[in-house]
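STRUCTURE REQUEST FORM
Protein name: Immunity protein 8
Source organism: Aneurinibacillus aneurinilyticus ATCC 12856
Requested output: structure tokens
Priority: standard
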Amino acid sequence: MKLIVPELKGLHIISEDWGESLDNFWIQLHADIGTKGKEDVDIFVVYVVSPSRLQGCDIEVGRGLFIMSDFNISLLEQKIKHLLENCKRKTWEETALAINRYAYWDYENYQENS
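Status: completed
Returned output:
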């Protein structure tokens, strides 16, 4: 049985909010993820936040939330690639839903309403 192998094709900062110090940040990124060997991608949204920023929050939900002491995009890329290794499935839809455990799939609402 052949499985879909997801691949991180790009990671882009969409918005960033830095507090009064370098250890106080909230960053939104788009992860372009597609099937290995193909050009098409879907967008998955992730947020990177510092522990310092979380101290000021009453409540946060964890899906799509990566907590880092220091923002390091290379380290984040490595982590996402590692997570993708566990998201291989029979179809792209199943693969994307597996990735969706860690990030917000751009097409999530479309799939739920289909």
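Reviewer notes: The beta strands are 6-18, 25-35, 42-49, 65-67, 104-105. The chain has one domain: 6-109.
Form closed.
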